[in-house]
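User: quick one
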Amino acid sequence: MPDAPPPSITPTPTGFTLLGLLSFGRELSGYELKRWADNLRFFWSAPAMSQVYREVERLAAAGLVAQRQVVRDGSRSTKVYRLTPEGERAVRDWLAAPPDPPVLRHPVALRVFFGHLLDPAVLRVAIEAHRAWCDDMLDQLGAVREGLGDDERWRNVAVVADWGLDYYRGERAAADGIEKTITAPE
Amino acid sequence: MPDAPPPSITPTPTGFTLLGLLSFGRELSGYELKRWADNLRFFWSAPAMSQVYREVERLAAAGLVAQRQVVRDGSRSTKVYRLTPEGERAVRDWLAAPPDPPVLRHPVALRVFFGHLLDPAVLRVAIEAHRAWCDDMLDQLGAVREGLGDDERWRNVAVVADWGLDYYRGERAAADGIEKTITAPE
DNA sequence: GCCAGCATGTAAGGAGTTACATGATTAT
DNA sequence: ATAATCATGTAACTCCTTACATGCTGGC
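Assistant: Done. Structure below.
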């Protein structure tokens, strides 16, 4: 008699992204999955460590990933996960479904919208902080992009990285534009 | 003896945005607040109806808004809310705090990232759906922008609307660019 | 007569966060 | 030695959503 059929729970969005990360073929630990997931932060929300552990357990319970105990360095042991065929089917189906609209929460836009409640100097500080954040993201994403090179295997990832670089450059330019509007009201 | 001091709870982000909406000076019902909040959807998440009612009750309990029973049309009655001085202080302080980084969740970027799991034709459909969504947002936001005119009272709102029009135009252009990359792989 | 819009809520649950708790290994 | 990184989890809580439930009013 084969194993009991895994309970058919539907993964959360984060669960699906973890399946996606495992679809690159490597066996990863929860810790490694978190670090890979952090690379999605340029266009997606990176999950908390604790959620990665919770989700990957759920995925294992559902049979979408296979768990394996690995002993490293003699005594220390780690759980690693790899995608099962069912898991791959699940991500594929999830991705093939019509996409939800993008989610955007833009604190700077919100502050301009409610600009009558803010001292212009404070608003300007917020805009400048945003620009600095954009620069930071551009640095980080630029580094990622360089690491990808033109390796055929990371072609799609590179496309997204290039898209992201444009996105954050646009974001930065928009911040500059808004700041001018604020500083020179008439 | 004055009224018991209102319990000092901190509003949720949605609660603060409701305070912000009330800071434009009008007394609004829960229903009207929801419709006003929907105008934030171009750069912020619009709350569900039920959450608006829950939050506005909490704000009233905290003394940040004042509730008033209004009888319309003889029998029908509505609760309307207006901002109290404490409420105004609370939003101001919230907005003056350093902004959180923007939140972005971009399903199309995610699909490109995991492009190896998708039939190119399906990916193209997703990109085209995204472009259609951008066009829709541009239409809606354009209509909002026109309604604002150059009324001095809506100056900041108009600045955000103009920013949004640029944002969605950029989004649309990026979708076109990505689609070309996908269609012509070499 | 019926449907769209106005109007208000409750109940249940989903998805995620922060804070806490623990401990081994590696590099400085 | 001590700090950073690797490694794994639990508990409590927040914020928000969907589904449900109800009823009035105005226009076609």
